[in-house]
Amino acid sequence: MNKLKRLIEELCPNGVKNKKLGEVCDFVNGFAFRSSLFREDGEKIIRITNINGRTVDIDDVKYFYKEDYKTDLEQFSIKNGDILIAMSGATTGKIGCYNYDDISYLNQRIGKFKPHSGILSRRYLYHVLLANTGTLYVLAGGGAQPNLSSTKLMETFEIPVPPFVVQEEIANILDRFAEYAAELQAELQARQEQYEYYRNKLLTFNKIGGQGVIWMKMSELGTFIRGNGLQKKDFTESGIPCIHYGQIYTHYGTFATKIKSYVNSETAKKCKKAHYGDLVFATVSENIDDVCKCVAWLGDEEICISGDSLAFSHDQNPKYIAYYFQTYAFAKYKRSRVTGTKVIRLHQSQLEQFEIPIPPLTEQERIVSILDKFEALVSDLVQGLPAEIAAVKEQYEYYRNKLLSFPKYKLSA
């Protein structure tokens, strides 16, 4: 900070001029790749959906073959460090930095900034744009279908442009905050992936036989009871404990001994119940990942369950079964059998047909004991690291606003 202060006092004692983006930067609009020519492999196409607000994701990209187009596509190429912006739709104004070594290409309604060498630092521009995503959204017209004009962006949007060395020092300071937050996020993700790996490994059995394991359909293993008639408006501060299906993927983990909500006794009389050891499934969701998430109820009282949920009664270790429904095996099974688009559903008949490996109870208990320890460790991280990440991001935004606030330029006397 002291170095930056000295640089500002030495190089811009009269303040800093604002300049239009077009004075210090060029801009490239994306190319209209034809969806009919998308391929299973080839060159990557970066689309609006790949920009998440700070970075560019390449988990769900499209591909094309260069030979399918007569246009020289190199002008639309994206290289490591390039700064992209979403130009339309709900993501308008979102900024992403492309942090990959392989080259990709811009799809339409995405733009790429090309700062003038020695005039505008690319990393400085990145932080300035992140600080102004709301302004860029308004510049696009806001509303339900904003549409940002590249001409308007480059000819009207102004940014402070201090000397290049000052820009670089500001970028260095802000990069350190961003890098630390990214390191914390990567550590959290790594621990979660490690836990998922060992959970899947412990719960993978040879289907041919051996290990004292038998494979059983859920319909053979126990009995499903469908919930009924319980809505969020029925919740009370006290009374008979209940679980609404929506709470299964927003509030509960693998198992629960305490309940978040209650209903009065009259409402409870109409509801189906789950008992100790039952699994409660949410059979509908807005996404495939959450549909049929379940929680093992390990409390002493019976609980009411809502519509769009199922209670599963059985004589196995309830945690073992709950953990198994978190595996890749079930994720793969349900993806091929869910129905719906906006509302995703897995029907009871499909859930009943899902086969699950059943080792002896002693082995189930051993597996559960190991997974409980893993889950406790990950839970501590999930509670601690996100709070630290949020604190670092808050610090980053504080210092970004502070460092990007320059005295207005004044002509020297």
UniProtKB/TrEMBL annotation:
Residue span, Type I restriction modification DNA specificity domain: 13-189, 217-389
Pfam families named among the record's database cross-references: Methylase_S (PF01420)
Chain coiled-coil ranges: 174-201
GO MF term list: DNA binding
Transmembrane segments: none
Alphabetized UniProt keyword annotations: Coiled coil, DNA-binding, Restriction system
GO biological process: DNA restriction-modification system
Keyword Cell cycle: no
InterPro entries: Restrct_endonuc_typeI_TRD, Restrct_endonuc_typeI_TRD_sf, Type-I_RE_S_subunit
Superkingdom of this protein's organism: Bacteria
Protein family per UniProt: Belongs to the type-I restriction system S methylase family.
Protein name (database record): Type I restriction modification DNA specificity domain-containing protein
Organism: Bacteroides caecimuris
